[in-house]
Amino acid sequence: MNLSEASTPLSRLLPPLILGGAGFSYQVFRNPNSAQALEVLKRAFQLGLRAIDTSAYYHPSELLLGEALSHPDFALHYSRDQYLLMTKVGRITATQFDYSPAWVRQSVLRSLQRLRTSYLDVVFCHDVEFVPDEEVLQAVGVLLDMVREGRIKYVGISGYCIDVLTRIARRVREEYSRPLDIVQNWAQMTLQNDRLAREGLAALREAGVSCVCNSSPLAIGLLRANGVPVGDLGDFHPAPPGLRLAAKEAAEYVAGQGESLAALALRHSIRRAQSESTTDLRVTTIMGVTSIAELEDNLATARQVLRISNEPRWLWTVDAGPSTDFGSSKLEGEEDLQAAVREILGSWYDFCFPSPGDGWDVAAKRPVAAAL
């Protein structure tokens, strides 16, 4: 099956694992560069990853990915229809958004140029809770126009606030007489916060959404031993000090049991996504990496949950069950570890990050102080 066929339901094309492009940005990596992106992508493709999610906001991710994907090592081995490219529009900087029709169109055209491709498989409206719903709906309309032009295959929205995502999904279906193809939510199908599974999926399914991406399974690096990532732009992580301390305590406890909190959290998110997938709703996991070592560690962890397929498009099966070499006794022990982590997190379990928070004026699309 050709991955570029827009008539094919996205749920039949989207693999269970997607490579996140934020690892090639100034937000989470110091000095992202073309050598880093090329090395990681070459190894990722060798290991079977065939879908990439990025954003214009994750600068310079699009530029680095475009350079890597057009490298002879890729062009000679992987044609464009053998992988999926997903990017986003609307968010420009931490405090700057532009959802105007002119900018949405310009942003898509710029992404096409940066990624060195003639079409994009998916384009999301980025962090929709920061702008008025009407502007999101208008931007979706522009993206749908670009679908008809052949520049985009599928259209979605992304953000943190589940109630906003579901509300907009319902309104898109009402206004355009068709549902969104896909919705992306971050850090809410994790060991720390499981609200997406409990509160979001049913509502999104009712709105006709057939694909949901769970990104940030480690809550942007919170659920690991070495603390939150700090890139060239400094510490942007929204977790308050109390949650960071609890996560550190959980990581130390898990390490004392001979396990890694990052591996435990990643397995949990992948398994949760698989268990929540149905015939009419595909739930996948976006996995951010910054290095080959991190990529290989994460995929080794994923292998404990997913089976390897002989499919030529990618090696990871869409409907995989737990790997047979991940014994039931360990699974039982894993449940105990997960319960211990939740107990350590205490009141921080299911804590939601403020997004956009009281300091943001949604109508003005800027910080409150700047809006006065």
TrEMBL record:
<dbReference type="GO" id="GO:0070485">
    <property type="term" value="P:dehydro-D-arabinono-1,4-lactone biosynthetic process"/>
</dbReference>
<dbReference type="InterPro" id="IPR036812">
    <property type="entry name" value="NAD(P)_OxRdtase_dom_sf"/>
</dbReference>
<dbReference type="GO" id="GO:0005829">
    <property type="term" value="C:cytosol"/>
</dbReference>
<dbReference type="GO" id="GO:0045290">
    <property type="term" value="F:D-arabinose 1-dehydrogenase [NAD(P)+] activity"/>
</dbReference>
<dbReference type="InterPro" id="IPR020471">
    <property type="entry name" value="AKR"/>
</dbReference>
<feature type="domain" description="NADP-dependent oxidoreductase">
    <location>
        <begin position="16"/>
        <end position="305"/>
    </location>
</feature>
<keyword id="KW-0560">Oxidoreductase</keyword>
<protein>
    <submittedName>
        <fullName>D-arabinose 1-dehydrogenase</fullName>
    </submittedName>
</protein>
<dbReference type="InterPro" id="IPR023210">
    <property type="entry name" value="NADP_OxRdtase_dom"/>
</dbReference>
<dbReference type="Pfam" id="PF00248">
    <property type="entry name" value="Aldo_ket_red"/>
</dbReference>
